[in-house]
DNA sequence: ATGCGCGTTCGGCATAGTCGAAATGTGTTC
DNA sequence: GAACACATTTCGACTATGCCGAACGCGCAT
């Protein structure tokens, strides 16, 4: 692991937590000398990965990050394959559809993982709605995350208390494991106000040609539409299976990605 | 400039050009030993900035880039201030509205600069339209870019032939300089099929409290709607002035950011 | 069965990055 | 208006760190 590159990414991550930071703040948070941080920051600055406010001298993320993120979306086959199916699913069920992938482990020693939304089809006829692509939710607190965790054993959090988002969030790892087992059996995960109050949802895993899970697709509704029509869950399952097939998956639900047996 | 950080960003930039690359390809393109590239790639991999295809071993951009880009948008005051004005402008003129900023210099020795769209208000009643946030256009080939270049002397390309996008693209720096002078005088830049065939537009600069230009806002139309109603240009100018005022600008158009006199 | 191409690992050398301290600049207070 | 205090930036020396070349393992195609 290259030290300075690691530090550079940590700086970007710090800036994504706090909107603006001074050089000293960054140095304190990373426990480094200000001059060390300055060298890295300067390099990122030259590439537009971060920007410096002309007056205060503080640093923010830069426009180059937007370009990277946008290209990522363009190159994501899961996304391009999902979009037509999501449109169809939204039209038939009348609710919003999200597609998400698992985000890599957070830099700090947080053992929890997040999911990030890579495609969003708004609720039909719902007027002007926020585009939710790019939003991040703790994996254990949402249906999309549960669908991903259930079929990826390497992504399971290793902690004894999960971060609570609302009063309904599952914070007990044992209870989470039980629920993930149920998800594996049903092929569908659910969420009831566990991430955001008033938000409910179901989600199903999507696999690819390697047989592993690569993403999840799900429906998001408010309390008024909960519980969902069972037909919606069936349509979701069928959609997840179709997308998986387009990505080359031989079967559905995907096989569980096993932890690589650290008994070496 | 920290060498390894610089190389890391170059790797990300290379991956944003070619969707997928093998380690060897990356090493060749950066003119480095494969093992050197591997160390950096491995570090970026751990942070989710890039992802590795499980079968081919090749590398792609990773989901962490999406999160960075999304946070960048959230922290961009230009964007949040623009959105309400852009909605209003689109409603009154009936055309799509884009807001953009200047992208930092490209890594390779290309002296040209690009603009990147940070907000996009679709044409009212135009049905389902692609979200254009994140798209990149050469600055010299679009109205948004000309509005930015006209008021930022430090961003002028230093070359004798500009990259051609269509037959209409301005490739002669002298002609570009003339046009930028006209933009400074009028406060409005125009574009006629210079970036994309069939695409026309006008744009105006937006400044902030430092007095410098920080972005541009513009209207995009097809040939059928060109030339625009002069009232639309007036509305655009008024909008750019309003956003600038909200950002703390004392006057409009913004002052020209001078090149820092490299006669040291 | 065997060669090739690829990603990956390992170790020594030397470069390149890190850190302390000093300098510059800017905003603020008295 | 001047001096303080804070924060960013520059500079130089040390040495820890990342760079590279070579060897390994793997999968694929021949």
Automatic annotation (TrEMBL), chains A, B:
Keyword terms of this UniProt record: DNA-binding, Glycerol metabolism, Transcription, Transcription regulation
Positions of the IclR-ED domain: 64-249
Database matches in PROSITE patterns: HTH_ICLR, ICLR_ED
Top-level taxon in the UniProt lineage: Bacteria
GO MF assignments: DNA binding; DNA-binding transcription factor activity
Domain HTH iclR-type: 2-63
Pfam families registered for this protein in UniProt: HTH_IclR (PF09339), IclR_C (PF01614)
SMART domains: HTH_ICLR
Any one biological process term the GO annotation gives: negative regulation of DNA-templated transcription
Database matches in InterPro entries: GAF-like_dom_sf, HTH_MetabolicPath_Reg, Tscrpt_reg_IclR_C, Tscrpt_reg_IclR_N, WH-like_DNA-bd_sf, WH_DNA-bd_sf
Purpose of the protein: May be an activator protein for the gylABX operon.
Name of the molecule in the record: Glycerol operon regulatory protein
Species of provenance: Pseudonocardia sulfidoxydans NBRC 16205
């Amino acid at each position: 692991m290259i030290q300075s590159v690691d530090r550079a990414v940590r700086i970007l991550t710090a800036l994504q937590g706090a909107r603006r930071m001074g050089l000293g703040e960054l140095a304190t948070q990373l426990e480094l000398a200000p001059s060390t941080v300055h060298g890295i920051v300067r390099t990122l600055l030259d590439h537009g990965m971060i920007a410096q406010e002309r007056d205060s001298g503080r640093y923010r993320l830069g426009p180059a990050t937007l370009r990277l993120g946008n290209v990522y979306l363009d190159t994501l086959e899961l996304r391009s394959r999902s979009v037509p199916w999501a449109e169809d699913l939204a039209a038939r069920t009348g609710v919003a559809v999200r597609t998400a992938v698992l985000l890599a482990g957070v830099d700090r020693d947080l053992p929890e993982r997040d999911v990030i939304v890579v495609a969003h089809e708004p609720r039909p006829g719902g007027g002007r709605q926020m585009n939710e692509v790019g939003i991040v939710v703790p994996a254990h607190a949402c249906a999309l995350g549960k669908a991903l965790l259930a079929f990826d054993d390497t992504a399971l959090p290793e902690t004894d208390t999960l971060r609570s988002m609302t009063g309904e969030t599952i914070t007990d790892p044992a209870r989470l494991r039980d629920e993930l087992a149920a998800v594996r059996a049903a092929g569908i995960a659910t969420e009831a106000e566990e991430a955001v109050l008033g938000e409910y949802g179901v989600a199903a895993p999507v696999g690819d040609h390697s047989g592993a899970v690569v993403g999840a697709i799900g429906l998001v509704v408010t309390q008024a539409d909960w519980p969902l029509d069972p037909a919606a869950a069936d349509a979701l399952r069928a959609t997840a299976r179709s997308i998986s097939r387009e990505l080359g998956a031989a079967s559905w639900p995907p096989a569980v990605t096993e932890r690589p047996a650290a008994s070496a």
